[in-house]
Write a structure and sequence with these properties.
About 5% of the residues have low confidence. Strands 1, 2, 3, 4, 5, 6 and 7 form a 7-stranded antiparallel sheet that branches. A two-stranded antiparallel ribbon has the order 8-9. Strand 8 and strand 9 form a beta hairpin. It is of the alpha+beta class.
């Protein structure tokens, strides 16, 4: 009986929170039905957020508490996906630290989509900021009646991966002190099969870097040694291929962030050579390359961000693979960009 009573109390509390959320949204929207619909999360959107924030992790718990009272500030539709920007209360509990970080390991099987959809959650200054949804080169459905959510690796989530995203939030990063990043520790890394443990090492480091403040990101990037440059360039090249192979735009973000952090430290042309891979890969998986590049440029301080934006102003010919000496190829594991030089 006690257990039943607790469950009834829990159910009542959930209903009360839902009703309070709806009443607040109705009050803000007034009589404008379109405004009301735009401000409320759909069943899919709320289900995705709940799955992204699920798990026995204190930091995920803080973000879950924010979800109870989150409101939709605005929506942007791209034709193949969407961006939803959130508004959170001033008095909510936030994650320690400032800056921005991104994570996403939820996939959706949606009626009408052959390849499903993926999602990325952006957290800024310790609070929910934006949810990105995207298809893989298919129009986003006008209405969604049936869907099923899974994690990247199946029904069971790899919480270790998510914990590593949070591990260094707001902790300064001195790249020059990380021995395993030096080129001498990564001979032949660029040509190895995809993925490799080193890929995840670098990805987690970059995810942590995105959580720093702008000044901290700038200082950390400045400490990257020119003897670590080729490791970042190789990682970027590998992530473009992996993004196409797994149809996951997070690898494009990580690969471009690696270019921005490296910033042409040895030779700006080495950095520029790799940008067409991410531009081409974005199109192959149905992502908007302009949005991908712009999202990365916002995080990159100084000339690194300027260089990423400048690439978009080039002619289509000058953004192509063949101009930079790359072709589409494959290895034993699947799709892979290959050099012609």
């Amino acid at each position: 009986m006690a257990a039943k009573g607790l469950q009834e109390l829990f159910d009542f509390t959930v209903r009360w929170r839902q009703e309070r959320y709806c009443l607040r949204i109705v009050k803000r929207a007034g009589k404008n039905r379109d405004s009301l619909c735009a401000m409320m999360l759909s069943l899919l959107e709320r289900a995705v957020l709940e799955k992204l924030l699920a798990g026995d992790c204190p930091r995920l718990g803080i973000l879950r508490s924010q979800l109870r009272d989150v409101e939709v500030e605005r929506r942007e539709f791209t034709g193949i996906g969407f961006f939803i920007y959130f508004r959170v209360g001033k008095d909510i509990e936030r994650l320690d630290g400032t800056g921005r970080f991104i994570f996403g390991d939820v996939q959706a099987c949606i009626s009408g989509l052959n390849y499903g959809a993926g999602f990325l959650l952006y957290v800024t200054d310790g609070a929910l900021h934006m949810l990105e949804g995207y298809t893989y080169d298919e129009p986003w459905p006008r209405s969604i009646e049936q869907f099923e959510l899974t994690y990247d690796n199946g029904l069971v989530r790899d919480l270790g991966k998510i914990s590593r995203v949070f591990a260094r939030i707001a902790s300064p990063i001195d790249f020059s002190s990380i021995d395993w990043l030096f080129d001498k520790s990564n001979h032949g890394y660029g040509l190895l099969s995809i993925p490799q443990p080193r890929d995840e090492d670098i990805a987690n480091l970059i995810r942590s870097w995105t959580a720093l403040t702008e000044s901290e990101r700038k200082e950390s990037a400045a400490h990257l040694s020119d003897k670590q440059s080729s490791t970042f360039l190789s990682f970027s090249e590998r992530m473009a291929s992996r993004a196409v192979r797994e149809r996951n735009s997070e690898y494009l973000l990580l690969g471009l962030l690696a270019l921005g952090i490296e910033g042409g430290k040895v030779d700006r042309r080495d950095n520029l050579l790799l940008m067409p891979l991410h531009y081409d890969a974005s199109r192959r998986i149905g992502a908007n390359p302009n949005e991908i590049f712009e999202n990365v440029a916002r995080l990159i301080p100084g000339t690194g961000g300027q260089n990423i934006r400048a690439f978009l102003s080039r002619s289509e010919r000058d953004k192509s693979l063949d101009v930079m000496g790359y072709v589409v190829g494959a290895d034993d594991d699947g799709f892979r960009y290959a050099r012609t030089w």
